[in-house]
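Quick note —
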Amino acid sequence: MENSQMRIIIAGFGGQGVVLTGNLIARAALKENKNVTGMVAYGAEMRGGTAFAAVIVSDEEIACPFVEIPDAAIVLNQPSLDKFEPDVAAGGLLLVNTSLVKRGPKREDIDRILVPATEIAQRLGQLKVANLAALGAFVRHTRLVKEESIRQAVKDLFAEKNPALTAVNLAAFEVGIEQSRIQKAACSALKKR
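Predicted structure written out below.
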């Protein structure tokens, strides 16, 4: 983490694991003795409506838990891209689930990660893990927390509740990491031309 603090928005439809993604980031950060705060908001429809989670991870104390201008946004659907792309800080990061978003990001002053998260989840046979594919790419790209801290947070969260979900969530996370590697290599190759 370059700055001592990163403000993150995770947004999508209710049921896409937005809150879980924020929870996993927070758990991983706590494992690394970082300060964390977060909050969630749901649309009136709940499952299927728009939901977002705001998480702040910091090496210092966090004075305010509200995220008005995120340093990073993970958007899992088109309405979330439309709503949160304008808010990302210049020089920030926007991760987009290209499986459910019809247009790419418009802004040129931010970093972009394009991940077919829902397609990855479909290939793994479990649509509910698209968020973990996105999280894998996000963690690999930002290095906000260690990959192993997320893996441990997934194990801690699912081991007792539903052990079968541990393996598929971890598989999606690994594919997301690989997607980020591939994208970064492709970007580097283009810059060399």
